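Regression test case RT-17, inverse folding.

Input:
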């Protein structure tokens, strides 16, 4: 059974209507990373940060998984393949598309986290700085999102899976944010073949053994059909 580790980024959800970060009309054109995606930004203006993620949560809830998400779920269901999806995305379109084995390394919009006691619980549709933690009562509620300067989740599990993989595939990510951007080099170092599926060449495209470029809803189902033949 072939073990495949698949890294996904905003590009896989783009055709579901969710904005990417670094496109000309991307989220980082309208919002400063320092303001909405760092612990310092949250400390300075928690209401602004909650408004930003409340809007992301509403956009994700209104979106539906696309053919690329569904193709990865079909690959996971194929008995010849053991699939782990490691996503940088904070939407839940992989799960709603049918994938089960998913690591959200940058956290999830559907989670709330208490800054004071680290208790986690399902996020309401709209979060506010005055929300109290159901465990300790502190009014220090934040979205369960990994911000710049924080350690992404489950890195030891991800690196172990990468080292043991038969193939590493990167889908819909620009390759700008570490440690995810380093997975292709980590995989190569472990002798694991690498494939990029992205709209355009990513920052690290030359590190991949093979790269295919086009919209995820076309190139991901085509690749899955090819390897499940
Ligand atoms: P980016 O916005 O940096 O990159 C999205 C990539 O998807 C680009 O390379 C696009 O060319 C590609 N793309 C766009 N539409 C596509 C389509 N229809 N099919 C296939 N590819 C498409 O987003 P990420 O690489 O995911 O982190 O960004 C990584 C991290 O940076 C995010 O998780 C977020 C952000 O800052 C945090 O907020 C901590």
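Golden output:
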């Amino acid at each position: 059974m072939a073990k495949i580790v698949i890294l996904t980024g905003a590009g896989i959800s783009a055709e579901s209507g969710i904005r990417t970060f670094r496109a000309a009309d991307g989220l980082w054109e309208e919002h400063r990373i320092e303001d909405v995606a760092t612990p310092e930004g949250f400390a300075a203006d928690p209401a602004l940060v909650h408004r930003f993620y409340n809007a992301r949560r509403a956009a994700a809830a209104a979106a539906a998984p696309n053919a690329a998400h569904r193709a990865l779920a079909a690959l996971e269901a194929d008995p010849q393949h053991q699939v782990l999806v490691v996503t940088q995305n904070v939407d839940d379109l992989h799960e709603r598309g049918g994938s089960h084995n998913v690591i959200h390394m940058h956290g999830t919009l559907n989670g709330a986290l208490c800054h004071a006691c680290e208790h986690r619980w399902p996020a309401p549709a709209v979060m506010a700085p005055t929300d109290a933690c159901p465990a300790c009562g502190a009014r220090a509620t934040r979205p369960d999102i990994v911000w710049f300067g924080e350690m992404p989740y489950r890195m030891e599990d991800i690196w172990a899976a990468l080292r043991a993989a038969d193939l590493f595939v990167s889908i819909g990510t620009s390759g700008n944010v570490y440690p995810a951007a380093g997975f292709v080099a980590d995989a190569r170092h472990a002798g694991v073949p690498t494939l990029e599926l992205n709209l355009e060449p990513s920052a690290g495209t030359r590190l991949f053994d093979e790269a295919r470029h086009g919209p995820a809803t076309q190139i991901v189902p085509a690749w899955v059909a090819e390897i499940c033949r």
